[in-house]
Structures are given as C-alpha cells and as structure tokens.
Amino acid sequence: MNNWILFSSSALLVTLVLLLALRILYLYRDSMASPAGGRLSAAPSPQQRYTTLRSENGSSKADSRSAKGSQEYSRVDWMSKAQIFAGIQLLDAKRKGLILADDNKPGCRQLAAMYMIGAAKGIILNMQGNDQDARDVAAFLMTHNLHFDRLDIEDALNAVTRDESTLNSYRCGLEGAETWLARRFVPDSISLYEAVSSNAFI
To answer: What is the pLDDT of residues 30-52, one digit of tens each?
Structure first.
C-alpha cells in the first residue's frame, strides 16, 4: 500500500514537472517571436539612447528656431519698438543737455532725423519688414519726436547720403537699433547723442 502511494505521488510530481517545462518552453518561444514573426529587437544601448536623445533635442531646438524665425510682426509691433528705442535715446540726449525738438538747432535736428531713419531701418530689418515699412516707421519717429512736417520728412529721407555727417548718423541709428534689439543696450559710441554731437557743432 505504501509503495502504491509512493508510486502515485512520484508519477504526479513527474507530470507536474513536465507540464511546467512545457509551459516555460511555450512562453519562451512566444516571447522570442515578434508580431511579424521575427525576433524582438534588442534593447538600445546607453550610447544609442544618448544619440537618439541628442537628435530629438536638436530637432526640437531647430523647430523652435524655425517657429521664431517665421513669427509675423504687425505695424503696431514696428512702431512700438521704434518709439521705445527713440524715447530711450532722446531721454539720454536730454540728460546730457541736448534737446533735439528745439527749432533753434536745425542742424542737430537733421542729424537726429538721420539717426531715426537708420534706427527704423535696423528695426525693420530684424522684424521682417520692407523698405516702405522702414520709411513709414521713420516718418512716424520724425513726426512724433522731432515735430517734422511732411516736407521735412521727405527732405530727410532724401538726405541720408547727402554728406558724410548725415551718413554717419544714419549708420549709428542702424547699428544702435540692431544692438538694442539684441542686447537691450546701446553703447555710447552709437548713441543718438554721440551721433549728433560728433557730427555737428552744438
């Protein structure tokens, strides 16, 4: 009787072991097969993950730069940037004793106009505008800050290359505006005060 019980127990144990082995074999074969019938790809190495991450980050940054570069600006954007820049420069000049709205200083006002024409060009170049937009912004600055009328504005727009002093003042305005847009700072060497004072007798 004891032998029969021992035999039955041994047979049951062997059966369970065989079933377990078959189950393990089935699971192993199933895990090795992909949905297409091939093997699963190996897990990426740390170097592969790093390369992929760098590629993804680079794509994100490129997309960000592309989105920024395609940003559209309105007339209000141009005018507001230009007026803020002009206001800062006029205040700096005033603190140094140069009041450019004074009708008794036509030479200085003319050079200031050249500076603002250059500033308008610098802002438009960096904000996707065209030549006519630059002229409109320049006219706006001269009207609101120097009290120029239409004839004064037309004369100023046609006088940029009249002589070395007007051209220098224009260049200072152009470089000053571009520097300000990039750094929110304008070196004294290309400020409105310096452009006027170095090219006119005050």
So the answer is: 555 544 444 444 555 544 543 44
Residue 61: inside a domain = no
Residue with tokens 């004369």: 155
Q: What is the pTM of this model?
A: 0.65
Measured over the CA atoms of residue 133, residue 181, residue 102 and residue 162, the dihedral's sign is negative
Question: Could you tell me if 26 and 110 lie in one domain?
Answer: no
Evaluate whether residue 37 is within a structural domain. Answer: no
Residue 58, token pair as written in the block: 């680079």
Give the number of C-alpha atoms closer than 13 A to the C-alpha of residue 77, restricted to the C-beta side.
11
- Please give the Cα distance from 120 to 117 (Å, whole number): 5
DSSP string, 50-95: HHHHHHHHHHHHHHHHHHHHT----HHHHHHHHHHHHHHHHHHHHH
Distance CA 69, CA 63 (A): 10
- Domain co-membership, 27 together with 80: no
Domain that holds residue 3: 1-32
> Is the domain of 80 the same as that of 177?
yes
